[in-house]
What we know:
The chain is an alpha+beta fold. Helices cover 45% and strands 9% of the residues.
Amino acid sequence: MEAELAALPETIAQGLSVWIKVVRGEGKWEHAGRTYRSIVRYWHVLDPILKAWLAAGAESLREITRDDVKRAIATRKGTPARSIHIVLRNVFRALRQEGVIFRDPTRGLVFAGINKTPPSVPSDRLADVLSHAKDDFQRFVMVLVCVHALSGTDIRRLPLTDLDLSREGLVVRRLEGDTSSTWTNSTTAAPPLGSANVTGAGR
């Protein structure tokens, strides 16, 4: 790590040295620290981002903006993008904690996740699943999960105001990063409430 830090501009190297101390549990608030092996794994994620920022003319981590962080995350997809988000959040939170920077560019920045909708349960298996439901409500929930791929969090957040019984429709609002999507599906595998059209809207 010393060689890598020595190759960086002094102000950035100093900031990262502070970050390493915090990760090791030696910052303002002492805690059980991470191993150097963990820090090396973080560094492998961080290194190409630092090189890109240096190539763009950055001379200090204080110069890094929220947009810079977003662009860094956007260079990858899925799990690698999530790793970038985690590492950058770790770095800038540590620097903010130690007073090296006054503004954390990762604060409030939420990683949108891996937007891959799970496949629906095949119709032949769905009938078997629904046969185990004890009442109509359970069948309704099963349809939301098996057909429309809603998660437990999605279902818990469903407000009654989004249920339109007259049209047998249900609006599902999901958080999908900065994009919005609308989709409509129907199923007749459940009773009237469960056979609602489900419309998902990103927000």
